[in-house]
Design brief:
It is a single chain. The chain is an alpha+beta fold and 368 residues long. The protein has two domains: 216 residues, Thrombin, subunit H (Beta Barrel), CATH 2.40.10; 139 residues, no CATH class. It is built from eleven helices and 14 strands. The strands form two sheets. A six-stranded antiparallel beta barrel has the order 1-2-3-6-5-4. The protein is elongated and about 75 Å long. It starts with a helix and ends in a 14-residue tail after the last helix. This is Trypsin-like serine protease. Pfam families: Trypsin. It is an enzyme of class 3 (hydrolase). Keywords: Hydrolase. Its EC number is 3.4.21.-.
């Protein structure tokens, strides 16, 4: 759902001069009162070296996409409201947009904390026809009208700045309790920053002032386990086997019927957990993962053999479950989690095994 909303707010920007596509970037749609705007990076409109400094409105092509992989529709620009070459942003007012659609409510924010989860969506040069969503976290708070975010370990610019090209102008969002806070616009990602998956963003304070938008502050509920959620999103997966493969790796004779039963329990757990927010579920999974990592290492020290019996496998699943119950009971004294019974915690354990986080052998030991 979140990716769909961010796709709806994201636009593709192309500078077209004499019928030739000269430049490509991204932008974000913002509604205020009855007007619609697009915010993007200055260099997406005027070029990295201001080679398009005399660009006409008719040469700026803005296209929106209602959902992933759907046809693009072009929106017309009414005027360039304001711009800043120094801070690398441009604010454009739109003329025609489908006002019949339900437009998500977005708040502008310029105060937020280090390590707060962030999401953004843009159109990379390497695949201009499909938007791509990324998750990250705040690396530095606003200073000198800019701040930095960094990607989580699950998302990365594998080819450095080549992967990042086209994402400039994308909106950086904090999503909290189903509320959207737009906190900045992605600027150029070059050199060492791209290699480290770090991105500079411009803050929105001056942009908001241009159209009279109120700027708010993100107040984080201290009873929620944001730290655990952030940590889970930063785990780099190293063991890509699923539940069945992990069992067969240590016991080739393990019953296929028993594996099927475990997979059915896993599926039931996923269905039951759908009502829990992604933030809460990722925090719960991290707390269980962290405890079970320790339990796995204890188990491996107790068992030298690479071959396990049926009972050893079932016993380790139960040990994982017990550790999960214990840690959530402990952490519930500080954080607020959804109420989970032992059966559901066991199904979360099975999910962690299936999703490459836990196993029955040394391949599942993560170095953090």
């Amino acid at each position: 759902m979140t990716d769909t909303i961010l796709t709806q707010l994201c636009v593709r920007i192309t500078i077209v001069i004499d019928g030739k596509n000269e430049s490509h970037g991204s932008g974000v749609i913002l509604k205020f009162k009855e007007n619609y705007y697009v915010i993007t990076a200055f260099h997406c409109i005027y070029g990295n070296e201001k080679q398009f400094q005399n660009v006409k409105l008719s040469e700026i092509k803005i296209e929106e996409q209602k959902a992933f992989n759907t046809p693009f529709s072009e929106v017309e620009i009414q005027e360039i409201v304001a711009k800043s070459e120094v801070d690398d942003w441009v604010l454009l007012k739109l003329k025609n947009i489908d006002t019949r659609r339900i437009f998500p409510n977005v708040s502008i924010c310029d105060e937020f904390k280090f390590d707060t989860p962030v999401a953004f969506t843009g159109f990379q040069n390497i695949n201009k026809n499909q938007s791509r969503s990324y998750k990250g976290r705040v690396l530095n708070e606003v200073s000198g009208r800019e701040f930095r975010i960094t990607l989580t370990h699950k998302d990365t610019f594998k080819a450095g700045s080549d992967d990042a090209k086209g994402l400039s102008g994308s909106g950086a969002f904090i999503i909290m309790d189903d509320k959207l806070f737009l906190i900045g616009i992605l600027k150029s990602v070059l050199g060492d920053d791209a290699s480290n998956d770090d991105i500079k963003c411009c803050s929105l304070t001056e942009i908001a002032q241009c159209i009279g938008l109120e700027v708010s502050t993100v107040i984080m509920d201290q009873s929620l386990d944001y730290w655990g959620s952030n940590r889970f999103n930063e785990i780099g997966i190293i063991d890509n086997r699923d539940l069945g493969e992990k069992i067969k790796a240590v016991n080739t004779d393990f019953s296929n019927l028993q594996i099927k039963i475990l997979c059915q329990q896993l599926a039931l757990g996923k269905s039951e957990l759908m009502g829990i927010s992604e933030r809460d579920l990722s925090a719960i999974k991290y707390r269980i993962f962290e405890e079970c990592q320790e339990e796995l290492q204890i188990f491996l020290e107790e068992n030298d053999s690479s071959i396990l019996s049926d009972e050893q496998i079932k016993n380790l699943i139960e040990r994982y479950t017990d550790r999960g119950v214990e840690i959530l009971d402990i952490k519930s004294k500080k954080y607020k989690y959804p109420i989970l019974d032992t059966q559901l915690i066991k199904r979360i354990v099975l999910d962690l095994i299936n999703e490459c986080y836990l196993s029955f052998d040394k391949e599942g030991v993560y170095d953090e």
